[in-house]
Amino acid sequence: MKPDHESSWTPPADAAEQPRQVRRILRLFRPYRGRLTVVGLLVGAASLVSVATPFLLKEILDVAIPEGRTGLLSLLALGMILGAVLTSVFGVLQTLISTTVGQRVMHDLRTAVYGRLQRMSLAFFTRTRTGEVQSRIANDIGGMQATVTSTATSLVSNATSVIATIVAMLALDWRLTVVSLLLLPVFVWISRRVGNERKKITTERQKQMAAMAATVTESLSVSGILLGRTMGRSGSLTRSFADESERLVDLEVRSNMAGRWRMAVITIVMAALPAVIYWSAGLTLQLGGPGVSIGTIVAFVSLQQGLFRPAVSLLSTGVQIQTSLALFQRIFEYLDLPVDITERENPVRLDRIKGEVRFEGVEFRYDGKGGPVLDGIDITVPAGGSLAVVGPTGAGKSTLGYLVPRLYDVTGGRVTLDGVDVRDLDFDTLARAVGVVSQETYLFHASVADNLRFAKPDATDAELVAAAKAAQIHDHIAALPDGYDTVVGERGHRFSGGEKQRLAIARTILRDPPVLILDEATSALDTRTEAAVQQAVDALMADRTTITIAHRLSTVRGADQIVVLDSGKLAEQGTHEELLERDGRYAALVRRDARLTPTR
């Protein structure tokens, strides 16, 4: 399997970036300000009601019971019950709204990351594992669910409760309040230490989850299973996965146990505080200080216990937020990926496309670095004409073809369509203008009809049949038990290589682009299948501008012009007959091809 690695671009993670990152997270919630305001009001109301309850208890113990005032006792008891009901109702409404907002934020993040990746050039995906991309969208965003759905609300709710409770405690007795809050700064310091520790572990854990997801994606695909079984590596792959999983177990345990003992100490101390309060009140009374009524002590302890839950929760929330910053950082890395293929601010839209393609002084380097893959390429393909590109492996043939639909962008010179630089065209025009049929056919795990309609969602059944007939695949589809409703299987593995190619050709016929790029569309097929696919290709090429990247030279002899690439440079150019007469590199390739091609 491929070694684990991230995409080549990773921004620096610096502590100074945290405030900017937090502001960026808060901006995610900006579209939902109205709903969050309602949540804030509900939180405030719930906090006020919960704080009022101990004061009602104080009145019961200090006034209603000692003075035998039954009416007041009933009213105060009813007030405590009503407070519990209101707190519960406010809590349910608060949870409903905050969860909805959180899920909408997650939806926005998922959509933003997916949309960003859709805009990346082909080069990004050639250097990034599929499982790594999937892990960012599934595991990283999924791991933030608690933060964006409940943590933010919990932070506001607990902070409000803590402030309201402290104010109420001060109103009851400021001395007991000071005793209760002496250790709070120590607790805050401990929680920050725990949060930083968990953040580091979370970053490692998410990378490990991405590595494991990539291993699963690669080894449990149809191709991966075939390779593993035929190479006798199933046991080795299982052991490799077990090692990956073992590392994840260690990180999960470390993540859950990080700071657990320190937080346990905080819990013990907070739980012991009521005893300290009783002791302080009794000591004050014995030393001749001002007395504290039983009702005040009970109400204060009730408030102090009420402070315990949100205070501990607030500290835990702080830890969780710091942990989630690691996940947000990984998501923002993808959102900040530089998009090197973009649409102009005012792009050109072509309503009628003739299909003339020109390569003018074209140069291309991967990532703009290293030696040129293409250098000084000048070719003109008239509208409706055909160009064949041949040459040894690594000569830059596929790259040349991929410059037309802007799967890559030139680093020098330009590629034009009907005289307009393809970089100036809007994406819709380019997608309508250029179709690509590659050697590696990709089919979705869906029905034949759905795969064909991916090119034209509103295509009628009659159009599907016409395209399939032109691609020489209709009879095979019609013979299937479910016909066009047959599910093709993962990556189309229910169909042979030639059948998948013809389905891809039918899909492109349905799209009906005026310019066609054929990237070694028949090179991996046997000669009999190639003949059937070639008929479909010939039907597809009719009346279109065609650029054929060829491996088997027998498929390009009828091209209007043939160019030979060698080390990224244009070595020869002409028709099949002209190039044979020159007895140069093309003639040598033809002779080699004749030796390697079996007789039919």
UniProtKB/TrEMBL annotation:
Q: How does it sit in the membrane?
A: Multi-pass membrane protein
In this protein, which residues make up the domain named ABC transmembrane type-1? Answer: 38-323
Transmembrane stretches, start-end:
36-57, 72-97, 146-168, 174-191, 263-281
Q: Which CDD domains match?
A: ABC_6TM_exporter_like
Is Cell membrane among this UniProt entry's keywords?
yes
User: Which Gene3D superfamilies does the record cross-reference, listed alphabetically?
Assistant: ABC transporter type 1, transmembrane domain (1.20.1560.10), P-loop containing nucleotide triphosphate hydrolases (3.40.50.300)
The residues covered by the ABC transporter domain are 357-592
- Coiled-coil spans in chain: none
Family designation: Belongs to the ABC transporter superfamily. Siderophore-Fe(3+) uptake transporter (SIUT) (TC 3.A.1.21) family.
InterPro entries for this protein: AAA+_ATPase (IPR003593), ABC1_TM_dom (IPR011527), ABC1_TM_sf (IPR036640), ABC_transporter-like_ATP-bd (IPR003439), ABC_transporter-like_CS (IPR017871), P-loop_NTPase (IPR027417), Type_1_exporter (IPR039421)
**Subcellular location, record wording:** Cell inner membrane
Cellular component GO terms held in the UniProt record? plasma membrane
- What name is this protein filed under? Multidrug ABC transporter ATP-binding protein
Recorded hits in Pfam families, A to Z, give:
ABC_membrane, ABC_tran
Q: Which domain of life is it from?
A: Bacteria
- Would the keyword Zinc be found if you checked this record's keyword annotation? no
